[in-house]
Amino acid sequence: MSTESSSVPRPAPASLPRRVTSWYDRHRGGRAVVVGWVASRVLILVFLATVDRIVVGDVFYYWRKIEAMFDVGLAKTLNEYPTPVAWILWLPHAVTGGSRIGYLIAFIALMMALDAAFTFVLWRANGRRHDTSIDFWLIFVMLVGPLSYLRFDILPAVLAGGALLAARRRPWVAGALTGLGAAVKLWPALLMPVLLTHKPARRPAGIAFVVVGFGLALVSLLAGGWSRLVSPLTWQSGRGLQIESIWATPLMVARALQPDRWIVDMSRFQAYEIFGPGVSALQRVSDLATVLGLGMIIALWVRSFHHPQPSATAVGLIILATVAIMIVTNKTLSPQYLLWMGGPMAVLLQLRPEQPPELRRQTNRLAWQLVALALLTHLVYPLFYDSLLGRHGTAGIIASTVVVTVRNVALVAFTIEVCRIAWRSLRPAPLV
Questions:
Q1: 254, 262 in Cβ contact below 8 A?
Q2: How many Å is the Cα radius of gyration of the chain?
Q3: Phi/psi of residue 197, each to 5°?
Q4: Predicted local distance difference test score (pLDDT) of residue 2
Q5: pTM over 0.90
Q6: Which residues sit opposite 264 in a β-bridge?
């Protein structure tokens, strides 16, 4: 009897992860995007209703300030934010007639609408195809958790991502979105120079930025006066070391070992800060790091302007590096700041087809690092936050400080990595 058939090796069965991946790839499409968005966002709301209820505090703070605005005036309302923010935060109040719970629901709905709109824009910009950029955005926002909808930082994240997406085809849109972002959060103004490195886009992008950004600044000046216009800058300069920041980390570690030497308390700037030995010195180090970080950003601008034609990926990497530098060098670091990097990262993933293999792998690695940072940040706030404040004893302080330290070390490593990749992406093309 012939044994030929029995001698042919049978293919090994696929592993479970590979089978899951294969199944998922076969079921990609518009329907999968909708189902994925709905399922992940329902999970966010479940977290909000159960273990993350603490995050609603800032929304009720917004509500109180908007309620008081009708008595004290715009000039004395939410002075820590640019004036247009007060108008944005008034919208849920106008829709609900001033109801406290109604304001909360309307605010969440507004932020979810921004999230859904950006997901749709990613899908449409990709030729109505379901790709990795959408998967990243769905997972990233889900891991950040309810905080994504209980602060307004998803707005500048979406604006930065939209600006990068429009930079080549509709530069005037990119300029307008960046101008709006600068009017809302100030830091997006630092993204404008790199958007101007594409020569054909300079005029429309620059004009749109000036019209929207400076136009809103002028309206803000007329509506609230000079003091209200510059109040976010003076507010920021007076703040101390926020306990989640990179520069507070050494003191937070020391506090975990000697809790009696340092105090963690709410400051007059509506943030938990650390007080005690070494705070002033580390504030000065933070100020120096901010200057050095700005120098690195400017160096990336100069390098990009000297490049004959920076790719869209290079521009996106510089944007991501700029945001990361601002976050790690600052003496303040609120957990929602991580959202700012999500929009540009999603667009970078959508640009993978034009990237060489090595850069594609680096882009994937950066995305995975951001996903891990999102999870760690959710652990920091709100899950471990009471422990970080000292409300669960010494063991709680130690455990929560370990989590914060791991997150901050990972964030610094991510920043160094994205700066390195951004710099290398601007190398001159080899001569043929």
A1: yes
A2: 23
A3: -70, -20
A4: 46
A5: yes
A6: 274
